[in-house]
Amino acid sequence: MRNFEYYCPTRLVFGEGRIAKLPDLIPSGCRSLMIVFGGGSVRKNGVYEQVKAAIGNIPHTEFWGIEPNPCVETIRRAVEQGKRASVDFVLAVGGGSVIDATKLIVAALCTDMDAWEIVLSKKAEQTKPFGTVLTVPATGSEMNSGAVISRADTKEKFAFSSAHPVFSILDPKVTYSLSSHQVACGLADAFVHVIEQYLTLCGESRVMDRFAEGVLSTVIEIAPSLVKRHDDYDLMCDYMVSATAALNGMIAWGVTQDWATHMIGHEITALSGLTHGASLVIVLPAMMRVLREQKRQKLLQYAERVWNLHVGTEDERIDRAIELTEDFFCSLGLPTRLEDAGIGREIEDEVVRRFRDRSVSFGEGRNVDADCCRVIFDCCR
Ligand code: NZQ
Ligand code: ZN
Fold it and tell me: For the segment 283-336, what is each residue's pLDDT rounded down to a tens digit?
């Protein structure tokens, strides 16, 4: 097991009706609160009313209009508004995009640096405190310090590290209004988060392996019912907890991580607008195929423990595990090939060009570079 350090100060407040707890969670000394929202889904599903009723007479302003794959251009406007109002606490009400945007807003409120410069610096020096009311189980942003921000004019998308939320409220009932496509993308994102921390080296941590396999098996088990109906409370609970557990850092203790699928997926989204989870399901099966020798031992463990494949040669079991992974994504209604998702060759070429220009290489072997990315793209068609 590798050395590790873990710190997660986020108070999770889980369950039906918990938005009403907001007044106990927002620090009592808060003089100016800013609430950050997306495009308006919370007005249709009752979340906005619940939040307003809970905060009562706490002085606050509202910022509306954070888009999916939040753009720095929008975030700059929120920062201006927050600075004018001398905001000392921010509440994000939405999915990963609203929460990620808030992670940049709270950093930019503390400095004169431009928000994009903060993203490029990779780590926020200082932040205002913030909390979240999560409405999409997917990213884990409600319990981690990472954020992914896009820039519309250059079609770039980069991750940076900010602060953890002070608290996050997870009420499974607020997710009933998600569409089947949103649930599918959320399940896929959570699944791939686990894979990024699991499908690397064997034998580093028995307990992390079992945690990861537990989350993967749960997602596979609940997905068929979840994509059909989203108003089953118990199923939504397991979905929500799985997504949070997939990226709150706990399954990463002492193990080698990958993240190459995400790095390619982020570029596809930045250039085409494809939803985050939908980009990952195209890249992951190809990544498994291209790196099958490097990942052989872990793929065999994955085949055995997640897909219950016990017979056949090693190569047959690996082939079948990759096939089942791709079938699983297809069963969510998500295309797993670039052409089926309408992604043209010009996007592939641009991603490869960017990786070459930036001289980057990703993955546990640091070998997913521009050339390897080209081979992976060939496998995604
Ligand atoms: O904007 P509104 O109107 O609220 O609509 C949103 C949005 O259109 C809608 N929505 C949210 N809650 C809803 C709802 N619709 C009906 N009912 C509800 N309860 O869903 C749409 C998508 O929301 P978004 O926040 O974009 O989804 P998600 O949570 O998947 O976040 C995706 C973003 O997070 C980043 C992604 O790259 C992407 O930018 N990620 C963040 C990570 C992190 N911070 O750790 C890690 C991830 O790997 C990921 O990269
Ligand atoms: Zn993700």
Answer: 999 999 999 999 999 999 999 999 999 999 999 999 999 999 999 999 999 999
Closest Cα to atom 38 of ligand 1: 69
CA distance 116 to 114: 6
DSSP class of residue 269 equals H
Q: Which atom of ligand 1 is nearest to the CA of 98?
A: 25
Ligand 1 neighbourhood includes 132 CB (under 6 angstroms): no
Best mutation site among 45, 276, 284 for ligand 1, i.e. most ligand atoms within 8 A of its Cβ? 276
Predicted structure pTM score: 0.98
Token look-up 């350090």 returns 5
Q: Are 355 and 246 in contact (CB under 8 A)?
A: no
Q: Distance between CA atoms of 103 and 119, rounded to whole angstroms? A: 10
**DSSP classification of residue 291:** T
Confidence class of residue 215 from pLDDT cuts 50, 70 and 90?
very high
Pocket test for ligand 1, best of 10, 71, 145, 148 (most atoms within 8 A of CB): 148
